[in-house]
Amino acid sequence: MRRCWRAILCLVGSLCLAPAALGEVPKIGFVDLDKALRELPEAQVGAKNLNQLIAEKEKAIEQKQQQIVSAQKALEQDFPKLSNAERQKREAQLQAMVMDLQKLRQSAQDQINMQRNQILENIQARLVRVVSQIGKQGHYTLILNDKSVLYVSGAIDLTQQVVAAMEKPKASKGK
User: Fold this and answer.
1) Are the beta carbons of 97 and 64 closer than 8 angstroms?
2) pTM > 0.85
3) 20 to 30 A Cα–Cα from 131, which one of 17, 66, 94, 100?
C-alpha cells in the first residue's frame, strides 16, 4: 500500500515539476468515491432495495429458526414416550430442518451479495465514465481517489515508450 502511494506521489511530483514537458501546468483532481456512492440517488435506491431484501431474508431465516426450536422442544417433551424408531425419525427430521436452515442462510447470503455487486457494478461503471468525461472536458492531467488513479490524460501516457524500451533488450539479445 505504501509503495502504491509513493509511486502516485512520485508521479504527481514529477508532473508538477515538468510543466514544460507537458506544454501546460498539470491539472490534478480528486474524487471521494465513498461520499459519491453515499450521495448518489441511484445508490440510495439500491441501498434501500438491498435493505428490503436483507429484511425479507432475515424474516425467513427467523421463521425457520422458530420452527426448529419448536420441533426441538416437542422432541424433548415427547422423548420419554417415543419408541426408538420414532425418536430416530424425529431426530432425522430435526437434523434435516437444521440443514435446510443452513442452505437458506447460504442462499440468502448469495442473493444479497449478488444484488449488492450488481448495484455497485452499475454505479461504478457509470462513475468511471463520468470521471473520464469530466477529466477530458476539464483538461485534467490526473484524477485520483483515495486508492487509485481514476483518469490519466493520454498526454502523459508512457505505455508505448515503456513497451518500446522493453523490446530493445530483446532485439539486442537475439543478435
Assistant:
1) yes
2) no
3) 17
